[in-house]
């Protein structure tokens, strides 16, 4: 009589290729899945390491410097574009502002207070806060970079689901400059404002493979 013993060992492993973390860029770690090269990270999360500065590419091909990364919350903060000296124009104005590719796993988080400057009057028909108490007034009056925008119509809004989460729009004839503050709380002094645009990413869906090892033992 033959007794067949079948032992199955089921072990799970991560996708065929192990996640490889990219090297540091300047003084910033580049945690998985963020990617600065073909041999590390995940290619859907492509960033650029340019002269030790880590940069996020917009759909229009403008590169925004990354200031910090929080891998535990899948968030990173990019620098708002410069408002060029003595003008009220963001350096990405000719590209229409910040636009993130529709197919990208990144979006603009709801913790940003976005401020728009030098807006045309039609903006007053929008639900934005364009009142004299809007925080954008403080930027115009108190921040050196905002001087070029002084006495222009400005508005602010909290980025949320009612606004597209992949676009901050500026244009000639609309608003010509913008900035953003992350996690602004009412009552915060302007010195506490953390300038930046916070992005969030959807983590990759790792495929889990089940490896089945069978051990066949034949006992007489
Ligand atoms: C690289 O960055 C350094 C320091 O910020 C700067 O002095 C240098 O000009 C940059 N080089 C290039 C090629 O951009
Ligand atoms: C945006 O997405 C499209 C389609 O997925 C792709 O062809 C294009 O290269 C992307 N643009 C950038 C700047 O990544
Ligand atoms: C902007 O102004 C600063 C100091 O006020 C100066 O150092 C810089 O060169 C100026 N930049 C441009 C593009 O004019
Ligand atoms: C405001 O925007 C218009 C274009 O919409 C531009 O021509 C003008 O120079 C801007 N104002 C300032 C103060 O920069
Ligand atoms: C605009 O923002 C200020 C400061 O956050 C707030 O006090 C005010 O109520 C807001 N006004 C409108 C119309 O939302
Ligand atoms: C942005 O993406 C995150 C993660 O994918 C999602 O949880 C969040 O709701 C999105 N935010 C907005 C404003 O669409």
UniProtKB/TrEMBL annotation:
<dbReference type="InterPro" id="IPR025287">
    <property type="entry name" value="WAK_GUB"/>
</dbReference>
<feature type="domain" description="Wall-associated receptor kinase galacturonan-binding">
    <location>
        <begin position="22"/>
        <end position="78"/>
    </location>
</feature>
<protein>
    <recommendedName>
        <fullName>Wall-associated receptor kinase galacturonan-binding domain-containing protein</fullName>
    </recommendedName>
</protein>
<keyword id="KW-0732">Signal</keyword>
<feature type="signal peptide">
    <location>
        <begin position="1"/>
        <end position="15"/>
    </location>
</feature>
<dbReference type="GO" id="GO:0016020">
    <property type="term" value="C:membrane"/>
</dbReference>
<dbReference type="Pfam" id="PF13947">
    <property type="entry name" value="GUB_WAK_bind"/>
</dbReference>
């Amino acid at each position: 009589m033959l007794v067949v013993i079948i032992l199955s060992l089921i072990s799970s492993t991560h996708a065929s290729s192990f996640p490889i973390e990219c090297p540091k860029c300047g003084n910033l770690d580049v945690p998985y899945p963020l990617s600065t090269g073909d041999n590390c990270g995940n290619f859907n999360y492509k960033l650029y390491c340019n002269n030790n500065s880590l940069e996020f590419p917009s759909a229009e091909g403008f590169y925004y410097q990354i200031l910090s990364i929080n891998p535990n919350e899948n968030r990173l903060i990019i620098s708002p574009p410069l408002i060029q000296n003595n003008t009220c124009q963001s350096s990405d104005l000719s590209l229409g502002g910040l636009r993130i590719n529709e197919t990208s796993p990144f979006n603009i988080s709801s913790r940003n207070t976005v401020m728009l400057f030098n807006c045309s009057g039609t903006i007053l028909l929008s639900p934005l806060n364009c009142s004299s108490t809007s925080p954008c007034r403080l930027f115009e009056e108190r921040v050196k970079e905002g001087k070029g925008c002084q006495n222009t119509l400005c508005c602010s809004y909290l980025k949320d689901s009612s606004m597209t989460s992949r676009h901050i729009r500026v244009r000639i004839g609309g608003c010509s400059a913008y900035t953003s503050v992350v996690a602004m709380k009412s009552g915060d002094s302007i010195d506490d404002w953390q300038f930046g645009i916070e992005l969030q990413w959807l983590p990759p869906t790792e495929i889990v493979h089940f490896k089945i090892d069978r051990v066949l033992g034949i006992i007489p």
